[in-house]
Design a protein that fits this description.
Structural class: alpha/beta
Number of helices: 9
Order of helices and strands: EHHHHHEHEHHEHEE
Radius of gyration: 18 Å
Strand order of the largest sheet: 3-2-1-4-5-6
Distance between the termini: 9 Å
CATH architecture of the largest domain: 3-Layer(aba) Sandwich
Helix content: 40-55%
Strand content: 5-15%
Number of domains: 2
Largest sheet: 6 strands, parallel
Number of strands: 6
CATH class of the largest domain: Alpha Beta
CATH topology of the largest domain: Rossmann fold
Shape: elongated
Length: 229
């Protein structure tokens, strides 16, 4: 069951170590109060979450720019919730979201345990598509930055996962090789298939325990990584 020959472990950040959904919900709760948005938060989030995923997919595929993602995901969510918000307020909410997101830094259960365990035998790294201006804050404020030897961000490379260039860039930064590395992430497309497409091993982190038909290594909690590493 163990993966042999691995020296370097690459993690995604959001939805894998850093609990994006929980921190995002707390952020929206705060900025709704600051901006006097009279809308039930759970109702808004029920629309926002799938819309956000849709726009992140477009962003990964280089079909929209960052500014369009940040504006349209909010605008579409408010429209879906039948709550009219003027453009200038959406822009302010977008800025407030980036400003306050890293004031909440919940990580997934057993994050520190598994990182302490892995660092004894592996070099640890991050590969993330998140915005550069906040990803390092997330790592620092959640107190996990010291575990990682390198952090590769899509804005540094100019492409996003699953583009092979970002994986090759990260491997070069880490001074390691494909057959000595494994990628762990929550996105089947960006993390798992992105890695396996260049011949790199991958582990799918999926808290929903999705039933996959293909032979992909999969865990639904971080402690279960011990059976592979």
């Amino acid at each position: 069951m163990k993966i042999n020959g691995i020296t370097d472990v690459f993690f995604d950040l959001d939805h894998t170590l850093w609990d994006f959904d929980k921190n995002s919900a707390l952020t929206f709760e705060k900025i709704f109060k600051l901006n006097n948005i009279e809308l039930e938060l759970d109702d808004f989030l029920s629309h926002y979450k799938p819309i956000n995923l849709k726009y992140w997919k477009l962003y990964r595929e280089e079909k929209i720019e960052k500014e369009a993602l940040r504006f349209n995901r909010l605008n579409d969510a408010f429209l879906a919730a039948n709550h009219k918000v003027e453009d200038d307020l959406i822009l302010k909410i977008s800025d407030d979201y980036i400003k306050y997101l890293t004031t909440f830094n919940n990580v997934f259960q057993d994050t520190f345990h598994i990182l302490d365990y892995l660092k004894l035998n592996y070099n640890l790294h991050i590969i993330t598509n998140g915005f550069d201006e906040i990803q390092h804050k997330k790592l620092t404020k959640s107190n996990i930055n010291h575990y990682f030897k390198t952090v590769t961000n899509s804005e540094m490379v100019g492409v996003k996962k699953p583009n092979p260039k970002i994986f090759n860039y990260a491997l070069t930064m880490a001074n390691t090789e494909i057959d000595k590395s494994v990628m762990i992430g929550d996105s089947l497309e960006a993390d798992v298939l992105g890695a396996t497409n260049i011949g790199m091993q991958a582990i799918f982190f999926d808290v929903h325990n999705t039933d996959l038909d293909i032979g992909i290594k999969q865990v639904n909690n971080l402690i279960s990584l011990k059976k592979y590493l």
